[in-house]
Amino acid sequence: MHHLGVVHRTVDRADPAAVEALSRFGVATVHEAMGRLGLMRPYIRPVYEGARLCGTAVTVLLQPGDNWMLHVAAEQVCEGDVVVAGCTTESEDGFFGELLATSLRARGARGLVIDGGCRDVDDLRRMDFPVFSRAVSAKGTVKATLGSVNVPVVVANALVNPGDVIVADADGVVVVPAARAAEVAEASARREAAEEGKRERFRAGELGLDMYGMRGPLAELGLTYVD
After folding, report:
1. What percent of the chain has pLDDT over 70?
2. What is the pTM of this model?
3. Pairing mode, if any, of strands 81-87 and 53-62?
4. How far is residue 34's CA from residue 48's CA, in Å, rounded to a whole number?
5. Are strands 148-149 and 111-118 parallel, antiparallel or unpaired?
6. What is the C-alpha separation between 54 and 151, in angstroms, rounded?
């Protein structure tokens, strides 16, 4: 367990070129290319349609109903970062809104992923500041208890280390370990190229049954067709 009340200023961020490469791919592609790892639980959703982000994680461990550490984290944000916040226990309060978004944007943040609540959704949409959250809630928070910044956190069942790459879109949120960023970007590109070939064959009317050689295994298991 982490000590509470710690801010790590030094973060070993993923290579910017690898982050840029990953930003071209959707969450489903990245997740598959990484070996079906890294997905956050599907209850983390974009707070407005069309939100998407890709960047390096500045992590936050929050206490329930208390957003103090988000203000502490803002100082540690660099251009291209995504703030990723977990909580010591489940909480759906509105930890984050338009004022904090304005602050984070001024620091160069690409967005926020939070296993908690978010508010001011219309303002965030107008700003186009992407937020992926557990809930939308107008309930306010206090600033009274210490958490930590830039420690490993578990967010919606996914382990996030400071500097990991976060990719989020309409399909969810995936975490790519910093050390694997370049390799996963390459695997994602290969996967997309292979999918384009399949897409062409599907467009031409070919069936997955034939493309993937499924008929034999289905017959072996006893699938029968009745007219």
Report:
1. 99
2. 0.95
3. parallel
4. 27
5. unpaired
6. 20
